[in-house]
Amino acid sequence: MIYVYLFIGLVIAQRLAEVVVAKSNERWMKERGAFEAGASHYPVMVALHSCFFVSLLVEVTVESLTWSIWSVLPLVIFLLAQIIRVWALVSLGRYWNTKIIVLPDADPIQRGPYRWIRHPNYLVVVLEILFLPLIFQAYVTAILFSLFNVVMLMVRVKIEEEALDQDGRYQEKFHEVGRFMGTRKR
Q1: I need a surface site. Which of 24, 107, 120, 177 has the fewest CB within 10 A?
Q2: pLDDT tens for the 186 residues of the chain, in order
Q3: Of 10, 25, 36, nearest in space to 101 by CA
Q4: CATH number of 2-174
């Protein structure tokens, strides 16, 4: 059981490290005239992600869930999602953030996974919220928080795309790129 807690603890530590990077990137962008959009829903998103980890820890503890043969596929998907996460973060560089921070006049990033998917990091979050609990057969957390996350992303993606498209360049650059599933056919 200790390995389960260590694994989940590593994921939590990764998220906390990302918050530190995001704060640094936020300062850097705001020093250059960036603004925040969707600030009102951000605390709800933080609460959702925090409660996700609490729920996962409670479920694995109460149900004494651990690794099994059924852990292999969700673990592989989760680890592949981490590769995409790092690729997306590196591709955005200083523009990556957990908040919606927009630097006016900055060209939309179209390198890395952003060549094919508008929101690869959100795709990663969808995969993580579903498959991290499935590694331990924590079905309640997987289903419940996947549903909550869908609602959150419906709000967030709309606000983010509107903020990024204030001058029309975002839609111009990404009108042929799918939100989560790759390039659309012409």
Answers
A1: 107
A2: 899 999 999 999 999 999 999 999 999 999 999 999 999 999 999 999 999 999 999 999 999 988 889 999 999 999 999 999 999 999 999 999 999 999 988 888 889 999 888 899 999 999 999 999 999 999 999 999 999 999 999 999 999 988 888 767 667 667 666 666 666 544
A3: 36
A4: 1.20.120.1630
Cβ atoms within 10 Å of 126's Cβ, excluding its own: 17
Give the DSSP letter of residue 186: -
Q: How far, in Å, CA of 125 to CA of 106, rounded?
A: 25
Rounded to 10°, the helix 2-31/42-62 angle is 170
Q: Beta strand pairing status for 35-37 and 100-102?
A: antiparallel
For 68, residues 6+ apart whose C-beta sits below 8 A from its C-beta are 137
**CB 97 within 8 Å of CB 39:** no
Nearest to 173 by CA among 112, 95, 108, 116: 108
- Which neighbouring-strand residues pair with 144? none
At which residue do the structure tokens 């630097």 appear? 103
How buried is residue 14: exposed, middle or buried, by Cβ count under 10 Å (0-12/13-18/19+)?
exposed
Read off the pTM.
0.89
- Are 37 and 163 in contact by the 8 Å Cβ rule? The answer is yes
Residue with tokens 């390198």: 111
